[in-house]
Design a protein that fits this description.
The protein has 62 residues and is an alpha+beta fold. It has a single domain, classed as Dodecin subunit-like, CATH 3.30.1660. 26% of the residues lie in helices and 47% in strands. Strands 1-3-2 form a 3-stranded antiparallel sheet, with helices on one face. The longest helix has 12 residues. The model has no long low-confidence stretch (mean pLDDT 91).
């Protein structure tokens, strides 16, 4: 089972630290980062994924 998240936030050190924390916890980057300008600040976005065993089938594996 693949989990998917899309992280967004101002393009600053807090956003970078958040992405780094997910990467250190087993998540992987998915695709390219994106950036947008809302008229006041740059907003960054990054998709991340994590592969996990399907828990509904785990009981039946032998």
């Amino acid at each position: 089972m693949t989990q998917y998240k899309f992280l967004t936030g101002p393009d600053d050190s807090t956003f970078c630290a958040r992405v780094t924390e997910f990467l250190n916890n087993g998540w992987k980057l998915y695709g390219n980062p994106t950036m947008s300008f809302d008229g006041k600040m740059i907003i960054a976005g990054q998709a991340i994924i994590k592969e996990e065993a399907d828990k509904s089938e785990a009981c039946c594996l032998k």
